[in-house]
TrEMBL record:
Pfam families, sorted: Glyco_hydro_20 (PF00728)
Record's keyword terms, sorted: Glycoprotein, Glycosidase, Hydrolase, Signal
Species of origin: Conidiobolus coronatus (strain ATCC 28846 / CBS 209.66 / NRRL 28638) (Delacroixia coronata)
Similarity annotation: Belongs to the glycosyl hydrolase 20 family.
Record's protein name: beta-N-acetylhexosaminidase
Top-level taxon in the UniProt lineage: Eukaryota
Length: 368
């Protein structure tokens, strides 16, 4: 995505009082960060041209642009899962790299994880954390921790021998790797965010100020809070805006996305971040995040995917969505959301329409 497109997202975020951009800058299928510590990483992938990479100068420009508009940017270091892009540069550090049967080894193509038993793997990730700490001044850094596939590590003879020799489990391997990432973040005076699996699946020990990001289901927030940790809410059941748009898999028989159905604005608005929590537990929900993953989203369509559905989420976060003990009827939300959509369009944001123009001009006449 171009710098211009990212700036437009930041502009729209500022209009909508969304003040944190979580930048998932690395993943298996791309490495668009022009790392100085390990230039081989971006030179090996070549998904985009060199002039399209995010350089130090570009990142600093975007960070400053965001701060001028009260939008913080928090980067994510994705490891040891979703790491084909690192394994492509350093094959000796990768497991199950770009396997034909990618579903057996990971969540999506190309498959690939880092070998957690090789010290070089953790050193590269530590170096990336150091680089991001230089470039992104925010107090937080996201250390990922999602969608680890044990089959990937089990495919490595050296990892199997290591596990047998030291009598450790797959979870032990992950916990040790994540702990090394945590130490590096702490050396850079950064608090951490992790995806929920780090805690709920792998039982990682996390610092008290860590944020645990919920994405697999809203009910998992309660489990995290009962373990004593703070929650960042982004349930895919409500706030994954790329859901319901089909799949990138060319021969998938149903054509459905993994997280159907489409999250229309009414679903977005219905997300109760404090569901089944006591008033005291609800204080541990520190914020929420609307996600739009990029498998089928680029700068040509990003604004349509985001707005005004993310605007509905903003109202939930800032003023709540309840009238008494009930979720507020969307009937009375729609007129002002329609109005806000036209205000964004007037500011040059390509927000999608929610109703035909006649319905917009005749509020409540298109209700049941």
């Amino acid at each position: 995505m171009s710098v211009k497109a990212i700036k437009r997202v930041i502009d729209a975020m500022s209009y909508n009082k969304l003040n944190v951009l979580h930048w998932h800058i690395l993943d298996s299928n791309d490495f668009n960060f022009k790392s100085k510590s390990h230039p081989k990483l971006w030179k090996s992938m070549k998904v985009v041209e060199e002039e399209e990479l995010y350089t130090y100068e570009i990142i600093k420009e975007l960070v400053e642009y965001g701060l001028d508009r009260a939008v913080r940017i928090i980067p994510e270091v994705e490891a040891p899962g979703h790491s084909y892009s690192i394994g492509k540069a350093y094959p000796d550090l990768g497991t199950s790299l770009n396997e034909d049967d990618w579903r057996f080894y990971g969540p999506g193509p190309p498959s690939g994880q880092l070998d957690p038993t090789n010290p070089k793997s953790s050193q590269i990730v530590k170096d990336l954390i150091d680089e991001f700490a230089q470039l992104f001044p925010d107090n937080y850094i996201h250390l990922s921790g999602d969608e680890i596939n044990n089959n990937s590590w089990d495919s490595s003879e050296s990892i199997r021998k290591y596990m047998k020799r030291y009598n450790v489990t797959f979870d032990d391997l992950f916990k040790n790797f994540n702990y090394q990432m945590q130490i590096q973040a702490k050396k850079n005076n950064r608090s951490i965010i992790v995806w929920q699996e780090a805690l709920l699946k792998h039982s990682c020990k996390l610092p008290p100020d860590a944020l645990v990001q919920v994405w697999l289901g809203a009910s998992d927030a309660k489990k995290i809070i009962e373990l004593g940790h703070n929650v960042l809410a982004s349930s895919n059941q409500h706030w994954y805006l790329d859901c319901g748009h089909g799949t990138e898999i060319g021969n998938y028989p149903t054509g459905k996305s993994w997280c159907d159905p489409y999250k229309h604005w009414q679903i977005v608005y219905s997300y109760d971040l404090a569901a089944n929590l006591t008033a005291e537990q609800a204080k541990k929900v520190k914020g929420g995040e609307v996600a739009a993953w990029g498998e089928q989203i680029d700068e040509q369509v990003i604004e349509k995917f985001l707005w005004p559905r993310a605007s509905a989420a903003s109202e939930v976060l800032w003023t709540g969505n309840r009238d008494g003990d009930k979720i507020r009827s969307t009937k009375h939300v729609l007129p002002r959301l329609n109005d806000w959509r036209f205000r964004m369009v007037g500011r040059g944001i390509g927000a999608e329409p929610l109703q035909p123009l006649w319905c917009v001009k005749n509020p409540y006449r298109c209700d049941l």
